[in-house]
Specification:
This protein is an alpha+beta fold. The chain has a domain at 2-79: RRM (RNA recognition motif) domain (Alpha-Beta Plaits, 2-Layer Sandwich), CATH 3.30.70. Helix content is 20%, strand content 26%. The protein has three helices and six strands, in the order E-H-E-E-H-E-E-E-H. The chain has helices at residues 15-23, 53-63, 81-84, and strands at 2-7, 28-35, 42-50, 67-68, 71-72, 74-77. A four-stranded antiparallel β-sheet has the order 2-3-1-6. The protein has a two-stranded antiparallel ribbon with strand order 4-5. Strand 4 and strand 5 form a beta hairpin. The protein is elongated and about 80 Å long. The termini are far apart.
């Protein structure tokens, strides 16, 4: 079993189209197209799970860099979530100092009062 990442997909791509594209090279177990949580629109990438690792390698060699709907596909072996991110240890804030994230005019839940004019 091998999971493949398929990137730069046209947003109109369907699971059936992707299955047809990969089944030429071997048995496809599962297709997952990633969609935006809010809009339901395709995010332009997905995953294809192939039964045989050798067939998956052949599919990568044959399809990586090919054109689908005017876009050049990026296909490689999917990395587990824990291996994907490298670099900074914990993500989080990159700029500015620490602190509690509050500005100096934040009165901790109290509504800000308008100031009196200075003149």
């Amino acid at each position: 079993m091998k999971n493949l990442y398929v990137g730069n997909l046209p947003h109109s791509t369907t699971e059936a189209e992707l299955r047809n594209l990969f089944e030429v090279h071997g048995s496809v177990e599962k297709i997952t197209l990633i969609t935006d949580r809010d809009t339901g629109r395709s995010r332009g990438f997905g995953f294809v799970e192939m039964t045989n690792a050798g067939e998956a390698e052949k599919a990568i060699a044959a399809l990586n860099g090919t054109d689908l709907g005017g876009r050049t596909l990026t296909i490689n072996e999917a990395k587990p979530k824990s291996e994907r991110r490298s670099g900074t240890g914990g993500g989080g804030r990159r700029f500015g100092g620490g602190g509690s994230g509050r500005g100096r005019d934040d009165y901790r839940g109290h509504p800000r009062q308008p100031r009196e004019p200075r003149w």
